[in-house]
Amino acid sequence: IPVSSRQAFPLPSLPRKQPTVLVVCGPAQNGAIGLVCARHLRIFDYEPTIFYPKRSPDPLYRDFTTQCEKMDIPFLSYLPTEVQLINDAYNAVVDAVLGAEAEAAEGREPCAAILATLKHVRIPIVSLDVPSGWDVEAGSSGGISPDVLVSLSAPKQCARRFLGRQHFVAGRFLPYDVQKKFELNPPKYPGTECVVAL
Q: Where do the YjeF N-terminal domain residues begin and end (predicted)?
């Protein structure tokens, strides 16, 4: 995941005196991206906490988990169902629950309970790639309503229905032949940035 600056997970407005972020990770690829996000947030002096209830047996994902643990990033053993506890403890939530690979996972536990809780938080939600609960093509069908969307590689079809405050694309790393094959028209990335606002 190309995360070279704090802008990659656009949280510069968080007050530095309490830069706390809850990173909620699902069991598949988007959850692994959430682990990488948490690690980068820590590098940029944020205070991430991870909720990762269904850990993947994939060795790469286990390595990401170990890296987070070695950076002293705390892991929650449960997600509070009392939404006010989340609102009081954190300044933002990173949604890395489902993503583009979601399929029918949103109806199964622990994802269903996580989505039910995230739908009620009042702090900003930053969704990675596809907001959890959204169909990758059709868009929202009762999923969460994030304030910020960070599309990975390129915006998915559902991003047309995104009504939040900011939309970023992290995709400068895409090889030219992939861009050509899928007829992608990537935005211009300023300087050495790997992320651009749309």
A: 1-186
Residue 25 and residue 31: Cα distance in Å, rounded?
A: 4
Q: At what angle do helices 29-43 and 59-70 cross, to 10 degrees?
A: 20
Q: Rounded distance, CA 172 to CA 188, Å?
A: 9
The residue segments making up the domain with residue 191 are 1-197
Task: For residue 76, list its beta bridge partners.
Answer: 51
Query: Rounded CA gap, 75 and 15, in Å?
Result: 22
The pTM (predicted TM-score) of the whole model is 0.85
Least confident segment among 55-59, 92-96, 104-108, 185-189:
104-108
What CATH number corresponds to the domain at position 66?
Answer: 3.40.50.10260
Q: Could you identify the residue written with the tokens 């590098």? A: 43
Q: Which residues are registered as beta bridge partners of 135? A: 139
Number of domains in the chain: 1
* Interatomic CA distance for residues 140 and 133, integer angstroms: 7
Residue 138 tokens, joined: 């059709």
Contacts of 172 (CB under 8 A, 6+ apart): 2, 186, 189, 193, 194, 195, 196
